[in-house]
Structure formats: C-alpha cells, structure tokens
Amino acid sequence: MESFARTLIILGVVLLGIGVLIFALSRAGLPLGQLPGDIRIEGENYSCFIPLATGLLLSLLLTLALNLFNRLF
Fold it and tell me: Looking at residue 37, what DSSP letter applies?
C-alpha cells in the first residue's frame, strides 16, 4: 500500500507541474486553445472544440520535459 501512496503523491506533483506550466504559458502570451489548427465549430444550439494544435504542443513539451527528467535521474 505504501508504493501506491507514493505513486499517487508523484502523480499529484506531476499534475501540479503541468498546471503551473499551462498557467505560465498562458500568462506569457501563448494563446493555448486559440492556436492555428485548433478546431472550433459553433452552431445555434451547440459548440464543439477540438484542440489539435494545443494538444500537439503540450505533448511535445511534456515529452521533452520527461526525457530531460529521465536523463537527469
């Protein structure tokens, strides 16, 4: 049970780091969710948002960060 608790704590720290990263990027002027390539469909009674470019950018940043973390430790 102790290893499960450690895993949850590490996951929480990672999620906190992702949240801080997204917050910092939005404060820096990077319009996450409004990049070219993000699809927004709005109708009279519905709306649909598909963040393709934002997802790719975040995936790239997280991959680089995790690879750097893996090489250091």
Answer: T
Q: Pick from 60, 46, 59, 51: which is nearest to 31 by CA?
A: 51
| Contact indicator for 16, 24 with CB cutoff of 8 Å | no
Record the tokens describing residue 54, joined without a space: 């934002």
pTM confidence score? 0.58
Q: How far apart are CA 10 and CA 42, in angstroms?
A: 39
What is the Cβ-side half-sphere exposure of residue 54, based on CA atoms within 13 angstroms?
A: 15
pLDDT digits (tens, 9 = 90+) for 24-40: 877 887 777 788 889 99
